Amino acid sequence: MACLLWAFRGLSAAVFLSALWGAVAGDKLLVVPQDGSHWLSMKDIIERLSEKGHEIVVLVPEINLLLTESRHYTRKIYPVPYDQAELENRYRSFGKNHFSQRWLLNAAQTEYRNNMIVVGMYYLTCQSLLRDADTLSFLRAGKFDALFTDPALPCGVILAEYLGLPSVYLFRGFPCALEHTFTRTPSPSSYVPRYYTRFSDHMTFPQRVANFLARILENIVLDLLYSKYEDLARDLLGTQVDLPALYRKADIWLMRYDFVFEFPRPVMPNMVFIGGTSCKKASVLSQEFEAYVNASGEHGIVVFSLGSMVSEIPEHKAMEIADALGKIPQTVLWRYTGTVPPNLAKNTKLVKWLPQNDLLGHPKARAFITHSGSHGIYEGICNGVPLVMLPLFGDQMDNAKRMETRGAGVTLNVLEMTSKDLENALKTVINDKSYKENIMRLSSLHKDRPIEPLDLAVFWVEFVMRHKGAPHLRPAAHDLTWYQYHSLDVIGFLLAVILAVIFIALKCCVFAYRKCFGKKGRVKKSHKSKAH
Amino acid sequence: MACLLWAFRGLSAAVFLSALWGAVAGDKLLVVPQDGSHWLSMKDIIERLSEKGHEIVVLVPEINLLLTESRHYTRKIYPVPYDQAELENRYRSFGKNHFSQRWLLNAAQTEYRNNMIVVGMYYLTCQSLLRDADTLSFLRAGKFDALFTDPALPCGVILAEYLGLPSVYLFRGFPCALEHTFTRTPSPSSYVPRYYTRFSDHMTFPQRVANFLARILENIVLDLLYSKYEDLARDLLGTQVDLPALYRKADIWLMRYDFVFEFPRPVMPNMVFIGGTSCKKASVLSQEFEAYVNASGEHGIVVFSLGSMVSEIPEHKAMEIADALGKIPQTVLWRYTGTVPPNLAKNTKLVKWLPQNDLLGHPKARAFITHSGSHGIYEGICNGVPLVMLPLFGDQMDNAKRMETRGAGVTLNVLEMTSKDLENALKTVINDKSYKENIMRLSSLHKDRPIEPLDLAVFWVEFVMRHKGAPHLRPAAHDLTWYQYHSLDVIGFLLAVILAVIFIALKCCVFAYRKCFGKKGRVKKSHKSKAH
Question: Which of A189, A451, A486 is closest, CB to CB, to B451?
Fold first, then answer.
């Protein structure tokens, strides 16, 4: 009944919108999203698709963070084995743990364990979805034209195979740049830095050694993350499943970056670069924020947010930060819901939420203190505001490295930094003009494009729905075994031929030598013996 | 004086056009073109750039084939050491030789020698340009914003370095896919077929062996073609020059293909795929051709052209072809300037020129007999007309293979085919509906794009002029030596470490063994000797 109601809602929204836009596209898209910040980019694309008259069904776990109702899509809700309190508790622990001290030897293990607090929950979500007979039967009957998913975790990837649907992936590249790793896009370790290494594309020899080894370690991480999903897929599909082979079936990869941000590297024809979809034209500020900005005077403002995943900072760290913020002449707008640090200076305004893009787009924005998630980085780029980066987890350390390499910001280790470090970093990016110039250069390069990234994303989702896939973009590499792909059988064969030729040539030489000189030798010998 | 006149002409055209379009872009582009069919795509882009208000100077040898005057650009003419008769004679020989019989063992040599008839002349053209003090001084004083060239031969590439200009290349990929070979774009020989092999992207084991070897041979061909230019570049630049290093400085590669035509493979972020710029909406036919088409009745027409480079066909071959054409019910419009074959049937109309795209765009077009140059192929794709392909030289054999693999046409060996072969091929592509369906599918995929390829090409030339290059798209691979790029130093180092660890571990074991058992052994021995 609930399904019917949702379907009806979706239908009525589609009819309303198509009447509004004068065109019934009539395509039906199934969306398997990733909750959390990943959803934000996907939502923008879905809303635009809905406005173009497509019918959209989003698969939503009954307990979730951001997957709210919308007039743009119908939600198909499925049960999960945890409650709202557990979800919030896990996210809180996840956020909090980024501030716990870690040591060189256990850093990787700590990071992995912390990620698993949330990732483990997502596994339960996926397991619940793929075993929910009601949802599966709804999906089988759904007659969708394509599936749109975030492939950071493979639930949507498996469902596309189950439903036999062409698919479009929306992805930042984390974890493990699996858009390249799983799809055989060449990634020479000599200049393509691996995640977590924090290297740039110009590496020293020891860095290249580490990067080479990191490439091998990636396989272990991928196995740890995904092997369990292979079991889920096997149960659902009734056959042994190789997860990379499923990922290779993606028709289009919409990559949430471009090469103003990411280092240039080999890519494949079915990858479309749509970095910056989240950048919007800055709107007029509300009275509250307009008042803050106006009061900031000639010094302007600094915007400070560590994103939606981090609500609390340990008190001693918050005090260190507050101390640093109090030492710059700018007004700081700090999005923070934790306990107010007792040493908070007058120039620092704590807010529960802030219109980040609109503030960054204001001419008085002087710097942006960010955790360097890809959305924040792009808002910094779009609005040309120099960055002070306090990366916390995931791709954030590597994102920060990319912007630092381009001279558009300064990175600090949030665990190790002192109050003075933050103060200096802020003063540097504000007063050293090169930072502003560099981020303005990136901004102008990023904005100078033949088509808006959001339009490009929408185009390719529609393309896949129209043509039932994009098999003409599928490289033949996907039909080769690993040793064929690397031509190892060819090299082996050629080596065998060369060795055979050398062997035969040697044999011939020996034979010829014996023919020519063997008898003479013997003759000579016999002469000699006669002489004796 | 002549230069001034040209400059003035260019200026007045630019002012006129900018007034017409209401925007003075004010950028100045230097064009170093390649004469012959390559020029056709470049001309389209230049005309659009001129219409957008840019000032364009095209470097033109005083003796040329297609580089005619135009209101869209100023020509800067430089002297060459040959006359019109020699030029035409070389092209005639080049065209004619494609019909001379060749044998397996000397095929490559014959093809190379034949190409050198024209390529050798282009070398003289380039030599003359790079040694012409007047032209060089004109260029140095020109204050250009960028250089636009066809890099099939490296004259423009060298000039970009000499003038210190950012550059945009327009290229089909022939010879030797140098957009990948020279720029370190990974091209696994297991599924990326080499030119001249006529392989598809799905190769058998023997084909993969041949393709692997062809990759090695490519280097020899490149050396044969380009080493002489390194001397020219050294003389001009006053320093030893590595030609691939110059090619790597290209800011943008505009590739005259897309992946409806080409096999999907790794590419680089500074490559833009603009296949199909030459396709235009079919115009209304002239009275002469309209009459032919109308008279063709329900059977429709077949369009036949071997391109602008081939004017004559040996008589016996022309008769074979005429014989086959007479055996199909369609009216054949054959662009042919040679002697009329005596057996020409009534359904075959010989014309000196034909509006190829407009005829292919007519609903009565049933098939297109083409030499499968990339322009013709794209006109076939755009208009959805099945192909009978008679490839003659260069990339044409490989182009034909691409279309044949997609079931959109049939390839014949023009030297070996009989009249019956051609007749059968025509009947097949016309009567077997799969050919029409396949090329219509390619057509719909090719035409379904977010932006027109010509607009995309113009955008990127303007981008490079606006930003004085596109260094943000330059991969760090270009700063590595060959052994660093392939991580050979890293692998060597790690192997050394592994060997050292094994060696030390073994030594330790031996030492420990001796410590533990050595004495006992000796003790036992001494016991034994005592016992004795």
Answer: A451
Say which residues have a Cβ less than 8 Å from residue B321's Cβ, sequence separation at least 6.
Answer: B313, B341, B419, B422
As given in the structure block, the two tokens for residue B113 are 């020698």
Q: Is residue A531 part of a domain?
A: no
Question: Which pTM does this prediction carry?
Answer: 0.91
| pLDDT attached to residue A214 | 93
Confidence of residue A224 (pLDDT cuts 50, 70, 90): confident
Per the structure, the count of domains in chain B is: 3
Alpha carbon distances (Å) from A375 to A49, A324, A362: 20, 25, 18
| Pairing, β B28-32 against β A409-411 | unpaired
Q: Are residues B244 and B364 in the same domain?
A: no
The alpha carbon of residue B315 is apart from the nearest alpha carbon of chain A, in Å, by 41
Q: Test A263 with B476 for CB contact under 8 angstroms.
A: yes
Nearest CA to A217 among A176, A174, A265, A171? A176
Q: What is the mean pLDDT of residues A287-299?
A: 94
Instruction: Give CB contacts under 8 A, 24+ apart, made by B339-342.
Output: B339/B312, B339/B315, B341/B315
Q: Which of A447, A467, A496 is the last residue of a domain?
A: A447
Does one domain contain both B180 and B301? no
Q: What is the CATH number of the domain that holds B128?
A: 3.40.50.2000
Is residue A532 assigned to a domain?
no
Give the pLDDT confidence of B23-74 residue by residue, as tens digits.
445 799 999 999 988 999 999 999 999 999 999 999 999 999 999 999 999 9
Q: What's B340's DSSP letter?
A: P
Report whether pLDDT(A388) > 90: yes
Statement: residue B528 has pLDDT above 90: no
Chain A residue closest to B265 (CA)? A475
State the pLDDT at residue B24: 44
Q: Is the pLDDT of residue B5 over 50?
A: no
Q: Which two tokens stand for residue B264?
A: 């999907």
Residue B527 pLDDT exceeds 70: no
Model confidence at B19, in pLDDT bands (50, 70, 90)?
A: very low
- CA angle A219–A225–A227, rounded 5-degree value: 85
Q: What are the tens digits of pLDDT across the range B150-188?
A: 999 999 999 999 999 999 999 998 888 889 999 999 999
Tokens of B503: 């060696």
Decide: residue B110, CB within 10 A, 0-12 exposed, 13-18 middle, 19+ buried.
middle
Same domain membership, residue A496 and residue A424: no
pLDDT at A3 over 50: no
Q: B139: closest CA among B32, B263, B46? A: B32
Q: How many CB atoms lie within 10 A of CB B111?
A: 17
Contact A459 B450 (CB under 8 A): yes
pLDDT score recorded for residue B522: 54
**Is B484 domain-assigned?**
no
Same domain, yes or no: A400 and A466? no
**Over 70: is that where the pLDDT of A15 sits?**
no
pLDDT at B524: 52
Backbone angles phi, psi at B449, to 5 degrees: -140, 155
Q: How far is CA A85 from CA A82, A89, A92, A458, B339, in A?
A: 8, 6, 10, 36, 89
Assess whether B305 and B206 both reside in one domain: no
CA distances from B27 to A86, B263, B466 (A): 61, 36, 8
Domain span including residue B348: 287-447
Please provide the average confidence, as pLDDT, over all residues in chain B: 90
Shared-domain flag, residues A272 and A326? no
Cβ distance A209 to B264 less than 8 Å, yes or no, reads no
Same domain, A414 and A341: yes
Q: Do B490 and A190 touch (CB under 8 A)?
A: yes
Q: What are phi and psi of B517, to 5 degrees?
A: -105, -20
Nearest-CA distance from B41 to chain A in Å?
A: 20
The answer to whether residues B298 and B361 belong to one domain is: yes
- Decide if A470 is inside a domain: yes
